Every structure is written in structure tokens, then in C-alpha cells.
Amino acid sequence: MSRRVVVIGVGNPLRGDDGVGPAAVEALRARVPDGTVLAVSDGEPARMLDLWRGADTVVVVEALRTRPTRPGELHVLSAADAASWTAATASTHALGLGECLALAAALDQLPPRLVVHAMEVADVEVGEGLSGVVRSALPELIDRVAASVRQAHGQDREQ
User: Fold this and answer.
1) CA distances for 9 relative to 27, 46, 60, 78, angstroms
2) Taking all residues of the chain, what is their mean pLDDT, rounded to a whole number?
3) Which domains are seen in the chain, by residue range?
4) Which DSSP string do the residues of 39-67 spell out, in sequence order?
5) Across residues 104-117, what is the average pLDDT?
6) pTM to 2 decimal places
């Protein structure tokens, strides 16, 4: 059975650590099974819903700013967890993932399975490049996302 798996790296590479989602997606290009849809988004809810339309599994890779900050800390969240978690954090976008998930639920457009891989970040000021602590945690984030994608495709081992 063919499964449609979509990975969305949310963020803006021109805002420091907010580029962690797009950086992860770029690194995944050679590590995920054929047919996996890899996309980058600024997080705008209507575009997110359009990207995951028809997907069996959606994997979102997102930067989070929390109080207190713990840059480099990784989280794996379900859709429900992500909605409540992100509601209590400072989003790096005008509308956060929580609002996007609420809209999707209201419109009955949540995918059957959604998992969020989030990294806590520090610097989201204008400027290119990830901070050292986020750059150091990026390989582990990429490994976790790749494992989620393989699981969604029904594969247990590294490609």
C-alpha cells in the first residue's frame, strides 16, 4: 500500500535559528524513501493545510521559543500536544502551529497522523545562520525526523 508522507520544515532561514525546520528538510533529501514530499513553509495556516492535503502522515519540523529558553532541546509532539504546547510558547511566526492546528480541526482537515519534531531555539533575529547550540543539535533532529518518515512508510531500518 502506498502512503503519502509529507514533511514540512517550518521557518525562515533569514531569521537565525528559525531556519532549523528548512535546514532539516534540506538535509533529509538523501535520507528519506522515494515518494516522500519534502516542503518548506513560513507557517501560514492556509499554506500548511494545502501542503498536507491528501497526506496519510504529516511530519512538521518547527522551531520553538520557550520561557525559560533551553536552546537545542528536542521535542516530539502529537497534534494535540503540539496545539497545547505551542499555545504556551512564543511562536517564531505571526501565527503559530497551535493556530494552524485549530484551523485544521475546525475545517476537518487534520491529517490522519501528524507528528511534530520541535527544537527549542534562542536567536530568531534577522540574519542568516543557526546558532552554535542549534547547529550542534541539528543532526539528532534530522535522525529523529528520518526515523518518523521511515516509520510512516512502514520501514524500520535506515535507508
Assistant:
1) 11, 15, 6, 16
2) 86
3) 5-152 (3.40.50.1450)
4) EEE---HHHHHHHHTT-SEEEEEEEEB-S
5) 90
6) 0.87
